[in-house]
Amino acid sequence: METRISTMQGVTCTSTDSPDGQTFASSDLGSPLNPSGKRFNARTWAQSIPNGAAERGQEFRRVGLCFQELSVFGYSTATDFQKTVANIWLALPGMLARRLWPRASASKQNRVDIPRQFDGIIHAGDMCVVLGPPGSGCSTFLRAISGDRNGICINQDSYFSYQGISDKEMHTANRGDVIYTAEVDVYFPMLTVGETLTFAASARCPRELPKGISHQQYCEHLRDVTMAMYGISHTIHTKVGDEFVREVSGGERKRVTIAEATLSNAPFQCWDNSTRGLDAANAVEFCKTLRLQSEALILYEGRQIYFGPASRAKAYFVDLGFECPDRQTTPDFLKSMAFPAQRVPRQGCNTPRTADDFAAAWKQSAEYEALQREIEAYKAQHPIGGADAVKYRLLKQTYQAKGQRPSSPYMLSYSQQVMLCMWRGWRRFWADPGPAIWNPSTDGPLFSSWLFWYTLASLPTFALFHFPVGLAHDASSAAGDQATSRGFLMYLLFLTFLLWVSTFVHLCIAIAPSADSAGNIANFLFVRAFFFCGVVASPDKMPRFWIFLYRASPLSYYVSAVLSTGLANEVMVLDPAMAGQTCGDYLGAYIEQVGGYLADADAVTSCRDCRAKETNVILRTVGVEHGSRWRDLGILWVYVLFNVVGALAGYWLARVPRGRK
């Protein structure tokens, strides 16, 4: 792996006379340029790339970073409580306020500083290693400089310069050029390694390709080369998997992550704990590459205790009065500075003890003064918005597809992105088509045996729902096509109701902190909407305040439309009284509910209600009008559109980092 990483470094700084088309079109298994051959040489392949790029008028983009007084902080509350169904509503207003107006609500929370006053320079082409124990701010620092700032805040006094490009421009128009590779590998488990890396290569494919090379050939060749470099060519047809789908090993999955980051072609990459999951042999090889690091940043409890050449780091701490034990490697010695039990001070030396002492010693060192002079020179050489920024924008446009906006962070056009995502979605569906296909030997007989019992279990639904609301008949008293029109309207109502439920849940997910919380919120609001939709109690029986909830509930309009469509304009036919009962005994409770009176309360046959001759009378008692059914359908669609707009707005305001808006 040491050779592979050094090879990738050499891509942007070497060139040969190898024709660019030959590099991508070589089919000779004995050629060092063919990743499928046994004689493939990654260094030779890398050396053949720059010359071909120059022939196409392309130049590799290079990005450095200068940061000064970088401070990152977050917010927390002094006290918290366990969320339950009863008290989660107490935290809902504060949660929404923090997501929609983070600055206004920050004054009521405790500020927690993580990295404090960091300074440093990472020149284009350099590699910097960030060392520190867990909790020292290594991951937070990498997220801060890579733009992955969801949940953290950057101090306004912090200075960023990506070789003349401002922090805002880099993380909006060029956010694909500075990436953060997290230590946890997250993939679509059903996709194969080859499909995963093909998608990564296609998403960053440049506009100008070598002559005679198609888009598919270019992406597949880069995929094969990267897999050969990282030793995972044998997994091309193996699913990536996850904790539940066991396919490739943990070490191979980590190498897939590194390969995917390589295929992103991002000139500035931040790798967080890249040795996690690697097997012992590859982890040792990866650690050996520390000699390639030109810069080193040492952290201790959120303080910067050293930044400078990696070769000078050991000497700096030795000069502070610490001793490097025999057989201890330089990285272990540097990390031991953050562990009081591991660092060994020399006898008679007054050495720093706490993180503040180390930070103060660093601020007073000659290395820190030299770093400040270098930072000021970097600012003068690469001013914000200067010639370097203009050149970078022009280079980016040569990579983007035709018709793509210069301010867009994407290389592909919108149609190309849609086609690529559709291809990946189809591959995901094809990899997991469903139980009827991938396991027919057991699921087929089980389905046949369960069909009868499921049908039997659905009978209470028909008895308790379909018949009372009139879904068992056409509910039409007139001839012609009214039955067909009512059936069509009923179908539209069911479809609209399902859309409303789906979009309402998505709205809750967009504004809630987690999917579990969103589910609790959606269930609570849905039950409350059902209570005040006119089914449990008619509108005229509700107090004045609850009438507002009845008018605001979308279920009110849905129930009204369903009842009017299924029951309106029907002539009421009253069944005769049961044996031993009079009409008064039989229909007394009914008359008390809907009003009116019986023509003959003592009769035992031909029970006649003088007011309720048709179903419209009954429907009016619960506030349902037959003429408002299409209006109710339109109101339901208004609620659906409100949910869609609210979900998009909530996602944009609460989940999209402010640097990317």
Outline the secondary-structure elements.
Layout: H1 2-10, H2 20-25, H3 42-47, H4 49-55, E1 65-70, E2 72-76, H5 88-100, H6 102-106, E3 110-113, E4 118-122, E5 128-131, H7 138-146, E6 153-154, E7 159-161, H8 167-170, E8 178-181, H9 193-203, H10 215-229, H11 250-263, E9 268-271, H12 280-288, E10 295-300, E11 303-309, H13 310-319, H14 330-335, H15 355-363, H16 366-381, H17 387-399, H18 414-431, H19 435-438, H20 440-457, H21 459-466, H22 482-511, H23 515-531, H24 544-552, H25 554-567, H26 583-594, H27 615-621, H28 629-654
Parallel strand pairs: 5-10, 8-9
Antiparallel strand pairs: 1-4, 1-7, 2-3, 2-6, 10-11
Helix pairs in contact: 9-10, 9-11, 9-18, 10-11, 22-23, 22-25, 22-28, 25-28
Structure in words:
This protein is mainly alpha-helical and 661 residues long. Among the domains are: 2-60 and 186-271, no CATH class; 471-569 and 625-660, no CATH class; 573-612, no CATH class. Helix content is 49%, strand content 8%. It contains 28 helices and eleven strands. It has helices spanning 2-10, 20-25, 42-47, 49-55, 88-100, 102-106, 138-146, 167-170, 193-203, 215-229, 250-263, 280-288, 310-319, 330-335, 355-363, 366-381, 387-399, 414-431, 435-438, 440-457, 459-466, 482-511, 515-531, 544-552, 554-567, 583-594, 615-621, 629-654, and strands at 65-70, 72-76, 110-113, 118-122, 128-131, 153-154, 159-161, 178-181, 268-271, 295-300, 303-309. Strands 4-1-7 form a three-stranded antiparallel beta sheet, covered by helices on one side. A three-stranded antiparallel beta sheet has the order 3-2-6, with helices on one face. A hairpin with a 2-residue loop joins β10 (295-300) and β11. Mean pLDDT is 78; it is low at 1-19 and 474-481. Keywords: Hydrolase, Membrane, Transmembrane, Transmembrane helix, Transport. It comes from Aspergillus ellipticus CBS 707.79. It is found in: Membrane. This is P-loop containing nucleoside triphosphate hydrolase protein. Residues 1-29 have a biased composition (Polar residues).
